[in-house]
Amino acid sequence: MTAQQAKPSSRIGWIDVARGIALVAMAVYHFAWDLEFFGYATPGMTAVGGWKLFARSIASSFLLLVGVSLYLAHIGGIRWPSYWRRLAMVAAAAAAITLATWFATPGNYIFFGILHQIAFATVAGLLFLRLPPLLTLAIGAAIVVVGNFWSTPLFNHPALAWIGLAEARPRSSDFVPVFPWFGVVLAGMALAAFAARFGLFERLRNAAPGAWSNPLAFIGRHSLAFYLIHQPALISIVWLASQVIGPPPQDRKPAFMQACETSCLTEQPQAFCTAYCGCVADGLQSDGKLDEAFAASQSEEFRDRLQENVLVCTEAAETMTNTGSQ
Predict the structure, then answer these.
(1) 270 with 321: CB under 8 angstroms?
(2) Which stretches of the chain are assigned E, i.e. beta strand?
(3) Where are the domains of the chain?
(4) pTM (two decimals)
(5) Is the sign of the CA dihedral 303, 306, 308, 314 positive or negative?
(6) Nearest CA to 72 among 187, 183, 182, 196?
(7) How far is Cα 79 from Cα 185, in angstroms, rounded to an integer?
(8) Integer Rg of the chain from CA
(9) How many other β-carbons are positioned within 10 Å of the β-carbon of residue 244?
(10) DSSP 55-71
(11) By the 8 A CB rule, do 63 and 192 touch?
(12) For 171-198, how does the pLDDT look when each residue is reduced to its tens digit (9 = 90+)?
């Protein structure tokens, strides 16, 4: 069956199920983040190690399915009424997320998260609908590689942060820039085109999942609503629990050291990270600002003082480790 012979109006249950699984996994990650936010889990836990890999795999699978769905929705030609309606809904939801997080966590608000990426891909993806899938796949792979391994000061201006090629990652609790993540959407479009050529979608339509999949398929069919509702619901549950059973008291310095070293060890040796993190923790503690490091948002004064500590402690740790290695 050719791409033109496929039936774009017929839903494919397995794709809804796959989307539902990705959304449930996203909810699991966000619940872990909520536990960390309220002090029930180790600070920085979800930003490193297996949790970081889990978050990236969720985003990758979800955006891959965005590409598949974009291709299927317009396989026989762009259906403009439904296209504009869907784009308006996603763009409005993305704007709502930005506004809500701006008020809730102004120092860490979401200005280009996964919904912003989907809105961008919904527009930019149209340019690739009629390209050969192999070319689309190659461009997608190039975007992923460039986004992960190349940066330039030309994109350091905050207004260009959404592109994803700046030298430093901007502060945001959910940052899904064009580079590398639009490349994942293009990969989904290319794979969907190959699947259509070989009749895979028709076979999936004829092999509908069983009743066990109904909850997942329902979530997948209402993905935008689930995305908008699940995190406020989860964070409300954890907040209510915290009012009854507060989190265990934490010694801030060991918690800070653990989170700092876990992050540092991805790029530096153990000796450097121990010296560096201990120095930063001591500096914040002497300034009476260690508690603020765990707050949802930090003051400008805290960020300035932290930057000073980082510069001093980096130099001190480098000197210490270089002296010790001689």
Answers:
(1) no
(2) none
(3) 3-243, 252-325
(4) 0.79
(5) negative
(6) 196
(7) 20
(8) 23
(9) 6
(10) HHHHHHHHHHHHHHHHH
(11) no
(12) 888 999 999 999 999 999 999 999 999 9
